[in-house]
Amino acid sequence: MSSTSYNQKKYVGKSSIVDFYDSKHYNPDVYATSSGDPYHENTFTGELNVHVHDTAGETHEATVIALCARCNAIVLVYDKTYKQSFGKIDDLHNSIKQHINLEKVVVFLVGNKTDETHEEQVNTDEGYNKHKYLKTDLFIETSAKTGYNINELFNKIEAEVKISGKRP
Predict the structure, then answer these.
(1) Percent of the chain that is helix, strand, coil (3-state, to 5)
(2) pTM across the whole model
(3) Using CA atoms in the order 17, 24, 108, 114, what is the torsion angle rounded to 10 degrees?
(4) Predicted local distance difference test score (pLDDT) of residue 119
(5) How far apart are alpha carbons 98 and 89 in whole angstroms?
(6) Is 17 exposed, middle or buried (0-12, 13-18, 19+ CB in 10 A)?
(7) Cβ atoms of residues 108 and 138 within 8 Å
(8) In this predicted model, what pLDDT tens digit does every residue of 40-78 receive, in sequence order?
(9) What distance, in Å, lies between the first and last C-alpha atoms of the chain?
(10) Mind listing the pLDDT tens digit for each residue in 5-14?
(11) Exposed, middle or buried: residue 21 (CB in 10 Å: 0-12, 13-18, 19+)?
């Protein structure tokens, strides 16, 4: 079983990404994960059972680190329409890096809300450059509203975990 942790500030669409993958449609009533109760989801990507830890954006660092320590993949999500969420990626990545050997885990950078182009504050080049700077394993942009690249994200998580052989 592969374990994946989704982390970042609140309202970037982490829960909606997981929900869209599971249900294959957008649900505007998906509730944000509360800080005291990380959301756990078991899903099947094809060959791997994936246990998702969807943490609330304001979850305490110690909780995030504890969850990430048991994961094969960490997905850092920011909101393309909210520049501050993008700015917090460095801090979150550094916090995780201080406690976890990132050579033993696959790290993805995800820019969500590609459907809201009229409100975009973070363009694709900025996301790609952040991916290169942080040396994450993959950069992808998604829309949990339209489903753009949602399946691709989970397929790439599965493929990277299998190919890399990285284990926490």
Answers:
(1) 40, 20, 40
(2) 0.82
(3) -70
(4) 96
(5) 14
(6) buried
(7) yes
(8) 445 555 666 666 666 555 545 666 667 677 788 888 999
(9) 12
(10) 444 445 678 8
(11) buried
